[in-house]
Amino acid sequence: MAVHDNNTHLVLASGSPRRKDLLAGLKLRFKVVPSKIDESLMNGEQPVDHVRRLALEKASEVSALFPDTWTLGADTIVVIDGEILGKPADEDEARCMLSKLAGRTHEVYTGYALVHSGHPELRRIRSVVSQVYIRELSPTEIADYVKTGEPMDKAGAYAIQGIGSGIVQRIQGSYTNVVGLPLCEVAKDLQELGIYDFLQNGSKNA
Length: 206
Ligand SMILES: Cc1cn([C@H]2C[C@H](O)[C@@H](COP(=O)(O)OP(=O)(O)OP(=O)(O)O)O2)c(=O)[nH]c1=O
Known about the structure:
Blueprint: E1 10-12, H1 17-25, E2 30-32, H2 47-63, E3 70-80, E4 83-85, H3 91-101, E5 104-116, E6 124-134, H4 139-147, E7 168-172, H5 175-179, H6 183-192, H7 196-201
Parallel strand pairs: 1-2, 1-3
Antiparallel strand pairs: 3-4, 3-5, 5-6, 6-7
The site of thymidine-5'-triphosphate has 26 residues, from helix 1, strand 3 and helix 5.
């Protein structure tokens, strides 16, 4: 069954510069089209269900615009004591999130969905979890970090790939999953779907 042709590319359904940078690292041919879905939590929704649902909604919304094309959507959250932390609404919330995370281990979940507009039965929806330990932080350290602005568009109010690398003491699991896209798992899925080499090399393998 042919699920690609010479014009095939991947669409990344995301406005996250981190996801774009991560995917670019795989040297795949892709274009970026952000989704506009509502990312609210549903009552009683578990972390895994939440990230998988949002990843699928993001991918599906954008996929509808691109016939016969693969689309990738993703969603990342931080979870501590069963509480889901998304992106902080303001600096107060960012300080509050960082106080909860300081001196503790938390989980980072990223869900991702790969959907093909012409072959809905081929879709893949997965989630990956990593553990992150953030060192003890004084209120002044938290306030200073929030003032940098970096926490504001990041789940859990920190960026492991940025200034936040100075407060992450250790992680267990996938690093790219924490940044926003588990590349090893995504690459494996693209390989299993038979499009990884094609997306890297263009028509060479078509
Ligand atoms: C924990 C963590 C999250 N993040 C980012 C990744 C995501 O961009 C963001 C989580 O928000 P998301 O809602 O997953 O993504 P987004 O709104 O930025 O982009 P889109 O929905 O269009 O795909 O947090 C980091 O950059 N570094 C980190 O260490």
